[in-house]
Amino acid sequence: MAGGQTGGAQGRAWLSAALLSVALLVVPLLVWLLLPRPAPVMPPRREPAQTQLPPPMPEAPPPREPAVVAPPPAPPPPRDTTAASAAPIRGVVLDPDGRPIPGAVVSCREEPSVTATADAEGRFELPAEADGCDAIASHPQFGDAEPTRVAAGRDNVLRLTSAGVIEGEVVDESGRPVEEFLLAIESFSPSAPGARASVSGRARKVSDPAGAFMWDELVPGRYVFTASAAGRPPARSPPVDVVAGRTARRVRIVLRQGATLRGTILDADSRAPVAEAQVELDAVTSSSANAISLALTDAGGNYELQGVPASGPFSVRVRHEQYVTKIVPGLDARGAGSLRADIELRQLGDGGSREELSGIGAVLSASPSGVMIAGVIDGGPAALAGLAQGDVLVRIDGQETTDLPLSDCIQRLRGAPGTRVTVGVERDGRVVEVTIRRDVVVR
């Protein structure tokens, strides 16, 4: 009995402990549910960095990087005119009325070797390296086209200008017409920069009872003509300005009766006469308008050259296959009907000189800048005086070379050995006066 009671008491004690434990758990839960809850204290929530947006701010320039200085942009490389670009340069050449002109020659002013010829429809195609050049078109029947900048990817149009015409007459000293004569372009200065200047020296024979001539298809510019006839040395026209599409009229050239040069050609060593030597005028004109026939020496070495200038200095050239060619300068008939000059020739040696003259030893040529020294003979007076290729000759003994044709400049520089000539030479923008002693020059 006592054992049963003891067991019952223990059971009730465990039950009470269990109920007490449950009460301890349930009561706080009921209190938490029934009582008002305070606001929770929580740290602010952080958004991920990639989605965080800054607050709006007024626009401002971006901050500078003080430690970094950007270099200036490099200039674009120059146009490579030698390397091929993407496409050739195409275009068309038209006449003044807008018609295509076949056979016209197109070239770059900066690179004359870059050329093309227009086809039957006037179309041309320049190589790719012509891109950006100033192109010029020329044709014998028209004036040159104005220089035009051409480019790839477009249809370039070059329009030729109307050619000019010169009309005139050739008469003798009394005003009577010279019926047969040789006419040539002595010099030409184009009016358009870059226009062709290769017309100088062109010549033609003219036969007309009235002594009249007409020269058409002339590129606009300034011309000087030269005429010559049998017994009448070359004479020049005044400068004539040719305008596209117009005719310059009443140009007159007066051919005066020439003098006769006589003499004997001798061997310099043996004093024997030289037969069949040729004697002819030399550098009397810059063109080919010299109708004065050369003279041949007879068995006694005698010659007679008709039609030399009656006044003013001139030169003759004497040739023979066995002798050194000799140029004799400074001859002057001084208004007389004749003059005499006996000339000695030296025989040719093995590997020696082939030409002998008396002057300063300089070769002259016409250029857009004026009369230019194209070369000097080594050891000659010009070389010893410091003249060099490329120098521009502006004065000869005080006479401006712009007033003298090239042939007159040559004659004035030639002269007897020991005589002196003063020349004004322009080099690098400076003009220097130089006095030169003439001497015999061999080459």
Offer a few descriptive terms.
disordered N terminus; mainly beta; 3 helices; 443 residues; Immunoglobulin-like; 39% strand; six-stranded mixed beta sheet; protease; 4 domains; 10% helix; membrane
Structure, explained:
With 443 residues, this protein is mainly β. The protein has 4 domains: 89-159, Immunoglobulin-like (Sandwich); 164-255, Immunoglobulin-like (Sandwich), CATH 2.60.40; 259-352, Carboxypeptidase-like, regulatory domain (Immunoglobulin-like), CATH 2.60.40; 358-442, PDZ domain (Pdz3 Domain, Roll). It is 10% helix and 39% strand. The chain has helices at residues 2-34, 381-384, 406-413; strands spanning 89-94, 105-108, 115-117, 123-126, 134-138, 148-149, 156-159, 164-172, 180-190, 203-207, 212-218, 221-229, 232-236, 240-242, 247-255, 259-267, 278-282, 295-296, 302-308, 314-319, 325-331, 338-340, 343-345, 355-359, 362-367, 370-376, 392-396, 399-400, 420-427, 430-437, 439-442. A 6-stranded mixed beta sheet has the order 18-17-20-21-24-31. Strands 25, 26, 27, 28, 29 and 30 form a 6-stranded antiparallel beta sheet that branches. A hairpin with a 6-residue loop joins strand 2 and strand 3 (115-117). Residues 1-6, 39-71 and 79-85 have low confidence and may be disordered. It comes from Sorangium cellulosum. It holds the Pfam family PDZ_6. Residues 44-84 are annotated as: Disordered. The chain crosses the membrane at residues 13-35.
